[in-house]
Amino acid sequence: GREAAATPGATRTVPFHGARQAGITTPAQDSLVFAALDVTTSRAGELADVLQRWSEAAATMATGAPVGGPGGLGGAADEPPLDTGEAHELPPANLTVTLGYGPSLFDGRFGLAGRRPAALEELPALPGEQLDPTRCGGDLCLQACADDPQVAFHAVRNLVRIGRGVVAVRWVQLGFGRTATTSAGQPTPRNLMGFKDGTANLRAEDTAGLDRHVWVGGEGAPAADQEWMRGGTYLVARRIRMLVEAWDRAPLGEQERVIGRAKVSGAPLTGTSEFDPPDLARTSATGEPVIDVAAHMRLAAPETNGGARILRRGYSYTDGLDLTTGQLDAGLFFICFGNDPASQFVAIQRRLGARDGLTEYLKHTGSAIFACPPGTAEGESWGQGLFT
Ligand SMILES: C=CC1=C(C)c2cc3[nH]c(cc4nc(cc5[nH]c(cc1n2)c(C)c5CCC(=O)O)C(CCC(=O)O)=C4C)c(C)c3C=C
Ligand SMILES: [Fe+2]
């Protein structure tokens, strides 16, 4: 929440410029507006130009200033103002905007076919998914996070406006409430199943772990096959609906067995407090594993996945009522970052989809993958590496 040590007040700012893009290892904020976009022009130069203008606008908005600077709110009476205005007098709220490129951007329309990193492939079909094509894919993504939902919305709205005629929104997902912790100072939030989420996540302070598992070309990671992606990472997004009515009828013991942790404390079932290391090998007096063979945390753990780890940075969502069933459409908009999606997200999700006890309470309804380039220096464009 807002009282988190790493984000003590909504007046805080997160620098836009730097070696890494903000919004990945920077402390997870409270609200998300995630937009997937398609490029509607066939001219690469127009796209590069939008990326330049987006970079300037995102850097400006991250300081809490309106698009176009202080004058952006007003101007000539016969012209629309440069900034749409709804974030005026709101604090910057730790706004971050993170850009990603989808695999379809490299299909040849913009002369980029030779620049696609091998890891940026459409995700394969996975168990437990019932994907809605209107919530999948995209040539580009903009992930806006802030501690005020109006600040996050304002950022996406203004960037979409700048891109008019060159890009068009394909789908949007709003998220309320972070479901991950990305730095040591942050308290662990709860997801809509009522469990602490993010306990065993990678954290900003674990720079060796991030190099190995998150940053492309990091120390201990596979080498970058495309120079422009060095220092970047891959984002996988999954809209995961929770069948909350079924979950809410499951007894507490069943819920804890399915996750592998205690609901109130977040402790592993082999421990007593949240950060106790789980003992996956421990058996009870009757010889049964204490952490169930189908427990989510066992099947997602690095020990079960050849050491694979991911940085989770998802949000709870609700899109109101599903009119076809009369049930709540709510769940987790899962976002994770990693430098090798095939051996990380895809491998873990294959295992989860096939055996995880949580799967019967979930339905994956949206999916996308994006390559997030490294950060930009002052005066540089997001598109600098890819387009030059
Ligand atoms: C493919 C990756 C994962 C998906 C999809 C996923 C969905 C999902 N997870 C929860 C709730 C929890 N997950 C927890 C831990 C956890 N989950 C993943 C991966 C995916 N989860 C990993 C890698 C881990 C860490 C495993 C470990 O190293 O121990 C937990 C436990 C607390 C924690 O460590 O965060 C919860 C709770 C839901 C509800 C969900 C889909 C809606
Ligand atoms: Fe999980």
TrEMBL record:
Residues 21-176 form the Dyp-type peroxidase N-terminal domain. Its cofactor is heme b. Its EC number is 1.11.1.-. Its main location: other. It is found in: Cell envelope. Binds 1 heme b (iron(II)-protoporphyrin IX) group non-covalently per subunit. It comes from the Bacteria. Residues 188-376 form the Dyp-type peroxidase C-terminal domain. One of its GO terms (biological process) is iron import into cell. It catalyses: heme b + 2 H(+) = protoporphyrin IX + Fe(2+). Keywords: Heme, Iron, Lyase, Metal-binding, Oxidoreductase, Peroxidase, Signal. One of its GO terms (molecular function) is metal ion binding. InterPro entries: Dimeric_a/b-barrel (IPR011008), Dyp_perox_C (IPR048328), Dyp_perox_N (IPR048327), Dyp_peroxidase (IPR006314), EfeB/EfeN (IPR006313), TAT_signal (IPR006311). Belongs to the DyP-type peroxidase family. Involved in the recovery of exogenous heme iron. Extracts iron from heme while preserving the protoporphyrin ring intact. PANTHER family: DEFERROCHELATASE (PTHR30521:SF4), DEFERROCHELATASE/PEROXIDASE (PTHR30521). This is Deferrochelatase. It comes from Kineococcus radiotolerans (strain ATCC BAA-149 / DSM 14245 / SRS30216).
